[in-house]
Amino acid sequence: MRTIAEFEAAARERLDPAHYDYFAGGAQDEITLRENETAFQRLRLLPRVLRGGDKRDLSLTLLGAPSSMPILVAPTAFHRLAHPDGELATARAAARAGTIMIVSMAATTAIEDIAAAAPDLGLWFQLYLQPDLEFTEAIVRRAENAGVRAFVVTVDSPVLGRRERDDRNAFHDLPPGLAVENLRDIGENRSGGTASHVRDIVMSALNWDHIAWLRSKTKLPVLIKGVLHAEDARLAVHHGVAGIVVSNHGGRQLDTVAATIDVLPEIAAAVGGAVPVLLDGGIRRGTDVVKALALGADAVGVGRPVVWGLAAGGREGVTQVLELLREDFDQALALCGGRRPADLTPDQVRR
Ligand SMILES: Cc1cc2nc3c(=O)[nH]c(=O)nc-3n(C[C@H](O)[C@H](O)[C@H](O)COP(=O)(O)O)c2cc1C
Ligand SMILES: O=C(O)C(=O)c1ccccc1
Questions:
Q1: Are 260 and 252 in contact (CB under 8 A)?
Q2: pLDDT in tens, 219-271
Q3: Going along 149-234, which residue ranges are E strands?
Q4: What is the mean pLDDT of residues 337-344?
Q5: What does the angle CA 301 – CA 139 – CA 281 come to, to the nearest 5 degrees?
Q6: Is 76 annotated as a binding residue?
Q7: What is the mean pLDDT of residues 32-58?
Q8: Pairing verdict, β 71-73 and 277-280
Q9: How far apart are CA 226 and CA 157, in angstroms?
Q10: Please, which residues have CB within 8 angstroms of residue 13's CB and are 6 or more apart in sequence?
Q11: In the prediction, which pLDDT does 184 show?
């Protein structure tokens, strides 16, 4: 398979249609879901020429963590719905690719087991803060003890978006045998596992004080994921976050919000290099990665493409997806006259 679209088609054939819809779907009319991709397609590149050199180097260091390429695994829930090996397969593939995996708090495999399966993997942990801060702290300690290197707090989900495909399919529960393992066995009445718990895990009270609270509870870097407004990016830097993920949750939260690539320039300007800026949403081609880096991202995350690889072929499928994106990016970088990710500049992108 040569493209992410082919992996998606293969995944669709293998998955229960309701599960495919859960992974593929977005909020309401899915305008933002589509816009994330079409916004990349609207942008035109201006390559530089006569800049060749011996070798390209795609590697970088993000908050002290090395990555072989500026393409990270974005946090997505429920990998064991996509393949029986679930997050273990994803983690092994990410480790083999030498990239960073951001594990979802709503993973169907415990963070300890993921870390043990891929000891060399750079693991970050995505958090939905809980109203019960003691419970949240217990999860933070679990993740730290498992060896995660950063926390990524998702801030675009005071409530869960309205996904009409899930309503239509009445997909509200994980099948028997699957559970949200990171929410098991801690806190009162939190046995984990069902979608009713899952919906409860987002917190509408989340505010900047919670970010300060989390920073006081861990020495690890704290990033926030789901920033679209430049003023929030400024506030994030002011509040001492270690990094910002420009994200609209893959079009799954508020429909008709802007495509991430369209707001990246203003956010990069607001941050002014103070902290790393990541972007996710709609990355399907090497040229998408080039455009995001040129417009100010230090790295990008991929959500659905990883799920399609997992569903299509387990660990090997995820490896193929990550390598496909790596090669595609490497070639696009070369054709733009770049040898390293940092060579790309905003003047190389036109609307
Ligand atoms: C099936 C699915 C589950 C997701 N689960 C989470 C999650 O648990 N936590 C989170 O912060 N983001 C979650 N996201 C959002 C992703 O981290 C990411 O923002 C988005 O998928 C990027 O868009 P892309 O799928 O076009 O690459 C999920 C996305 C999908 C598609
Ligand atoms: O489906 C999602 O996008 C998501 O973020 C989520 C939130 C809570 C539980 C499971 C997934």
A1: no
A2: 999 999 999 999 999 999 999 999 999 999 999 999 999 999 999 999 999 99
A3: 150-154, 222-227
A4: 98
A5: 15
A6: yes
A7: 96
A8: unpaired
A9: 8
A10: none
A11: 79
Nearest ligand, CA 71: 1
Tell the residue nearest (CA) to atom 5 of ligand 1: 76
**Dist. CA 284–CA 257, nearest whole Å:** 20
Q: Would you say the pTM of this structure is higher than 0.95?
A: yes
> What's the half-sphere exposure (Cβ side, CA atoms, 13 Å) at 205?
9
Any idea where the domains of the chain sit in the sequence?
4-343
Instruction: Choose the catalytic residue: 19, 83, 210, 249.
Output: 249
Q: Name the architecture of domain 4-343.
A: Alpha-Beta Barrel (3.20)
- State if residue 73 touches ligand 1 by the CB under 6 angstroms criterion: no
Phi, psi for residue 246 in degrees, rounded to 5 = -75, 115
Does the CB atom of residue 25 touch ligand 1 within 6 A? no
Mean model confidence pLDDT for the chain: 95
Q: Using the Cα atoms of residue 81, residue 82, residue 87 and residue 88 in order, give the sign of their dihedral.
A: positive
Angle at 335 between CA 320 and CA 33, to 5 degrees: 55
Decide if pLDDT at 273 tops 90: yes
From 33, 152, 160, mutation site for ligand 2 pocket: most ligand atoms within 8 A of C-beta: 160
Q: For the chain, where are the E strands, in sequence order?
A: 44-45, 60-62, 65-67, 71-73, 100-103, 122-127, 150-154, 222-227, 243-246, 277-280, 299-302, 349-350
- The C-alpha atoms of residue 263 and residue 271 are separated, in whole angstroms, by 13
CA–CA separation, 214 vs 247, rounded Å? 21
Q: Is 249 a catalytic residue?
A: yes
Q: Which ligand is nearest to the CA of 166?
A: 2
The pLDDT score that the predictor gives to residue 185 is: 59
* Structural tokens at position 214: 């989390």
